[in-house]
Design goal:
disordered N terminus; 216 residues; 6-stranded antiparallel sheet; 5 helices; 4-stranded antiparallel sheet; alpha+beta; 2 domains
């Protein structure tokens, strides 16, 4: 699947993304160029592993964001202590538009650690595009991360062209991940459902039985 991208040019205000769009337009206010820009999911690189700091700062500003977390259990003395930590460091997903993110980076000291992630299109060595994640994939990713994975079926993968290729789309019809949609991929010789986040990463979910899936 090809991810949505937003060209880095000063004359570009926004690029429409497939799916539902939301706009930041306060009541009783005159629309500005920034307000009229559709909100997209931006994966943001966070320097110095300060993704927790950035998440807290964004939430204080009322900006929707998603930081995928995982449970961690450590032996402390004779006790097992449970805690949470980011599933991948230096990364946070922010639902915003480019101008708002630039303002946050400029005027909020904790948000200055964020950087746009970009990619160079093939056969174009001079321009680059800011990466955004299509809303459908992002919603499936967040839904899958919200499942209590007691069996350890989830694995976060770094992005590769193979993970981004189109394949057979399926949906879990039973079990903890019921309703989650993705694409069948072979990972380490095992068939798994993969939710691809274009040019960012992917979430692989093991398949106990092919009977747990339906083709969509």
């Amino acid at each position: 699947m090809i991810g949505s991208v937003d060209k880095i040019t000063e004359n570009t205000t926004c690029v429409a993304n497939a799916g539902t769009r939301s706009y930041a337009l306060p009541v009783d206010s005159q629309p500005t160029e920034t307000m009229l820009q559709p909100l997209l999911w931006y994966p943001m690189y966070v320097t110095y592993s300060r993704e927790l700091t950035v998440r807290d700062a964004l939430e204080k500003q009322g900006v929707r964001c998603f930081l995928p977390m995982q449970q961690k259990t450590e032996q402390v003395g004779k006790k097992l202590v449970k805690s949470e930590e980011p599933i991948v460091h230096n990364l946070i997903f922010v639902y915003s538009n480019r101008d708002q993110l630039r303002e946050l980076k400029m005027f909020n000291r904790d948000c200055r650690f964020m950087q746009f992630m970009s990619v160079r299109p093939r056969n174009d060595e001079q321009s680059s595009v800011v990466i955004t994640v299509p809303e459908r994939q992002m919603n499936q990713f967040m839904k899958a991360m919200g499942v209590e994975d007691t069996e350890g079926r989830r694995t976060y993968l770094h992005y590769s062209d193979y993970l981004g290729r189109e394949g057979q789309r399926v949906r879990f019809i039973r079990g903890a991940f019921e309703g989650i949609e993705g694409t069948i991929k072979r990972i380490k010789n095992n068939r798994q459902m993969v939710i691809s986040l274009p040019h960012v990463g992917a979430l692989a979910i093991s398949i106990p039985s092919i009977k747990d899936l339906e083709i969509i």
